[in-house]
Amino acid sequence: MKKPYVYLVGAGPGDEDLITLKGLRCIEKAEVILYDKLANPNLLKYKQPTAEIIDVGKAPDHHQYSQEEINRLLVSKAKEGKVVTRLKGGDPFVFGRGGEEALALYEENISFEVVPGITSAIAVPTYGGIPVTHRNVSTSFHVITGHEDPTKEVATVNYEALAKLAGTLIFLMGVSHLKEITEKLMHHGKDENTPAALIHRGTTARQRTVTGTLENIVEVARNNNIKSPSIIMIGEVINLRPQLNWLQQLPLQGKRILVTRTRQQASDLSKRLKELGAEVIEFPTIQIEAPKDFTEIDAKLNHLKETQHIIFTSVNGVQAFFQRLKALKIDIRAIGEAKIYAIGSATKEALEEKGILVDRIPEAYTAEGILEAVKDIIKEGDRVLLPRADIARKALSEGLSVMGAVVEEIDIYRTTIPTYSREDLLEILEIPVDYITFTSSSTVRNFIEILGEENKHLIESSKLAVIGPITGQTAKDLGLEVNIEAEKYTIEGLVKSIREGSDLEGF
């Protein structure tokens, strides 16, 4: 049996991009992952397909697992000879009880490694536009627990000493004790006019920041319904927020956007949306798989030299086509003098990466656009190869046949529904989603199949953004309202339209 090994990994404060590279590698190699409520669940997309996932999350009003049970679970899973990653919000050793977990492993002679995470004590104020230190304002900062162990006989937080400090005070997990904290500081001489701030769910789309003074921050928090998880800040650096509040300047800040593309393709769209400030939830409703039988496909690929035209209608088609050529050991030169067409710029770029120059792309990135683009090139009797999905529309092949072309369709890949449960999607939709993006008709159809007709009311407040008219029509046929349709049928065009639509919301 393999030697047990445990990684105690800090996942950062909420924004999934704030995890360290080392932390990400620990997720990728783990055979078992124990994660808590403050770790962004999007990080689990980097896990191995066979990894065991255990939610040990503890909420303020409900402990799914006690700390002792988590310790025992870490030990038992490690003793099975598994590589275990314990994914914790923030940093494991900053009020994260990582030390307790490490000691439990040490006592059982289990090897472990601690991977630091970006602590919310620094990251959350930064996302709130507040530096924890600033020259001539605050030369120190102090991180204090706002929730001491209730079993301790004597409290160890020295409010008398804290009240005398000129630096920034940062209380973690202290919202439920806010009144007590502020009163004790003022009792020990802290000026009641000292600036104070609360930052709720920092670094996420649901981040909210409220400011006031030590005297009125309790009332401000109550009026704005600020609850856990939030951090408390006290100090003069808060006055810098109007000038340094960079996050609020991002056009999609505060927006939660659901991306339904395949796992492999979601990254480009997600990255662009995140750069504009959005919180992205990836829930692929399609996955790309190889055909079950290659017999007919291989027969057609072995006669490539007889083909005058090849039309690629997706990046997936390009990838699958060249993967099969490689598997069959067919030289790329077998394409000969065949003219190559791509449905759009992304497909064109995918072909160029293979060293293939595209002869023509249509103005409109649709089957109808391709037919318009090739009508003066393809002659009667020409052989046209269409490597595409098994569920692709027939408009292109039918239009080519009307031109007199001999059409050879190749279902070079299959589009299937991932093995997600309806409960997974319903859990995501418990928190309102501002936008849901669809990049193909199959993403829409599969989304509704997973969601269920009876649950369509859960997306009534969400705006639907589609990549083009074909996808939009599919959504309408399924009884959905399309709010945004990209003018240019590309990922870049879709992001641009979402951004512009978001700008209009304020008018």
TrEMBL record:
One of its GO terms (biological process) is methylation. It holds the Pfam family TP_methylase. Its EC number is 2.1.1.107. One of its GO terms (molecular function) is uroporphyrinogen-III synthase activity. Residues 268-495 form the Tetrapyrrole biosynthesis uroporphyrinogen III synthase domain. Gene3D superfamilies: 3.40.50.10090, Cobalt-precorrin-4 Transmethylase, Domain 1 (3.40.1010.10), Methyltransferase, Cobalt-precorrin-4 Transmethylase, Domain 2 (3.30.950.10). Keywords: Methyltransferase, Porphyrin biosynthesis, S-adenosyl-L-methionine, Transferase. InterPro entries: 4pyrrol_Mease, 4pyrrol_Methylase_sf, 4pyrrol_syn_uPrphyn_synt_sf, 4pyrrol_synth_uPrphyn_synth, 4pyrrole_Mease_sub1, 4pyrrole_Mease_sub2, CobA/CysG_C, Siro_Cobalamin_biosynth. Residues 6-217 form the Tetrapyrrole methylase domain. PANTHER family: S-ADENOSYL-L-METHIONINE-DEPENDENT UROPORPHYRINOGEN III METHYLTRANSFERASE, CHLOROPLASTIC (PTHR45790:SF3), SIROHEME SYNTHASE-RELATED (PTHR45790). Belongs to the precorrin methyltransferase family. This is uroporphyrinogen-III C-methyltransferase. It comes from Anaerovirgula multivorans. The lineage of its organism: Bacteria, Bacillati, Bacillota, Clostridia, Peptostreptococcales.
